[in-house]
Amino acid sequence: MPNLPITIPPQYVPQVQETATFKRPNKPAFEGRMHRMQQIMRDEFEKLPLITEVIAPTGTGKSYAFAFPCLKYAGDKYNKKCGLIILPTNTLIDELHGEFSAMFPDLNIVKATGKSLDEADKKGSKQRWEALEEMASQADLMITNPDILNYAMLGGYDENIQRLMKRYTGNPRFKMSGGKTYWHFLHNFDYIIYDEFHLYDEEQLASIMLMLELRQAIVHESARFFFVTATPEEQVATFLQEREYDFISIEKCLQADKSSGNLAKTFTRLQEEIVDSPDNARCIHGSLEVDFTVNTNISEVLNDKIEEIAEQKEKRIKVLIIFNALYDLQRQSDYLRHSLPDHIIHEVSGYEDQGHHEADVILSTSKAEVGANFGVDYCIMQAGFNWRSFLQRFGRTARGEMSGKIIVSLTKKEKPIFNKLSKAFADQNICPYYDFAQIIKNSFARPDYYAQKVSPFMGQFLFALSNKMMNTHEFTSRTYFKKVIEDLPMPDLQKAQYKYFSLINSKVNELSNARNHDWNTWWQAYLNTYLSFRGSSVNVQVKDLELDAKLITYSKEWVLQNKAIIDVENKGEEGKEILVVDGLREEQDKDLLFETDTIPFARAQHNRFFKRKEKYEPEKLFKRALKEIQKNETIGPNARKEEELIDSLKGISKYFSTKRLNIIGVQGSDGESVIF
């Protein structure tokens, strides 16, 4: 196997002279010097602009900084600061909530996830929304996920509450006419933090920015927003400048006076520096020995390194193996357990999380990229899906002062990456971290990210939001929100998409009034996709015999494609099937069939069905659907209107993504493993 060895010296982050008391779960508190971000969040918070992009490598203690504004003004009712922290996974929410609750017992720290609301017996939209409002009004720090915020902003709770009130009171607008709104909910918070910000794509950034700008327009008293990441996307700054946000250097911000009220459209970047010297600095990563290899597949690497993996236990060193695919993880799990009978091997993935604390060897997937601190100093990792994915995985190893080793497995298809790396490192085998990271960025394919798409998506989200509000809120609220939209500064791209969706809506309504309900059914389902922050998936309950018949809820698509299904039981939640599985299929099922309700299907019901290979070409799928409808000629007084609508819909195709593809059913090629 071709290989390329590189050594990265220890990484240090400078510390300022100011100190703080740091509390840790199950450990004594200590007085220590702060990092720059921590000191600014505590002492200079009110000098920061509307948006601060925080670049902080893993291990820099940025989580501590999230609480400092609350801590500084705790007990001061006139200057009290309350924060909202948004994390991408519920696992991270549970971890941070547990840590903060132990570290800061004097603060009221609450978490809001679907699971936590269920555990509090808050069932149904009315109870859930009231619980969220109550938590927000009482919390010093609230930790939640972006899904709940997006669903609330787009009116998901309102629509269900309206349906409930209509059923039991006869007044469909009972809750909305006198109840608190989403914007009152956000008014509780003085600062809003999006951690792991690099995970959000253009559509998700559109939702976040729409929330920010509508809050500015409606609440008038600004909250400060923080976009926190270890791997920044430069196009975010480009996008903000295109929307006429002015960039101000962090140095200039700190020279300004404190500010409050309605903040100007400005942003800054606060970046923690990595240095090579331990002087006035704290070590966040020890020396790293990195070895890039090219091989046929990950099993070749594991077979080659199995003795080296076994030796780590004798050194009391944990091993982390990161796979690109869950299928490969579970396939190699059997080999590793057979080869390492004296090792505790745990899977930590979205399918099964066996925990990492007691494990000698941890098997993980992209789940390891987000916030995980496994305490490992030896890692074998596949390279990931782009440079950000690579660097997030890379940061899991040798945290603190420990040295470590990372073996990067590149497939033969990734040989061009290896060649670029070999050329870039030709004159050096010792490389400082920032230089290493830049070479990685230049060598790996960049993730698709187009700043110019965000504003159009904001226009679409804005229409979906306003359309829901017009159907659920009373007259005064509707009139007020119309005025907000009229006065909202919008770039031409955003305004054009808002007007475009309004045009489609009017054309669909004309056809619906003529009793062509297929178009209205499709359009309402399409608009409802904006309620989902991540897109849709069909989940299924699985009884996994390899895990002692443990019940797991996971993607039905993945289970049908990869798991050996031996039985179907009708004992699941709400009478749904439980798929009994035992190991992996001998061959993956790549001929799955899907059903959706967000592809136009009037006069072409077969448009609702498509194959797996078509799922990842949504633009082509949408265009094909329109052509299929046009093949079936319509007659009657609505024919012209329908043709006009179809012509108008062609503009949707370039924005039609997998997030707009609402999956309502999936079937294996044997046709036996699913109920639509």
TrEMBL record:
Domain Helicase ATP-binding: 43-250
Top-level taxon: Bacteria
A single MF term (Gene Ontology): ATP binding
Transmembrane parts of this sequence: none
UniProt keywords, alphabetically: Endonuclease, Hydrolase, Nuclease
Pfam families: DEAD
One GO term (biological process): interstrand cross-link repair
Protein name listed in UniProt: CRISPR-associated endonuclease/helicase Cas3
